Predict the 3D structure of the following.
Amino acid sequence: MPTREIAGKVVEVDAEGFLCNPNDWTKEIAEEIAREEGIEQLTELHWKVIEFCRADFKARGEPPTLRRITKEGGVDTKTLYALFPKGPAKKVARIAGLGKPTGCI
């Protein structure tokens, strides 16, 4: 697997830039990946979604889908797209240090 430095930490990533090991994730890594994704500032609502996704991953062993985030995470679809434009499930999984969600193109 390739490695890259994100927020001063060298981590393994896959071909699409997803962290290979969720335990390598830090809030600083999340902030840098968010900027790469065009999100300049992570708000309290962004962090709510990120933390839900990380907790759900820890409990279930896979990144949550868009439907799961909207049904269980307390954020409606419109808001999720506003927070993480153009592919929110994939984008939030990448920022949260998780693998690519099932069903994402």
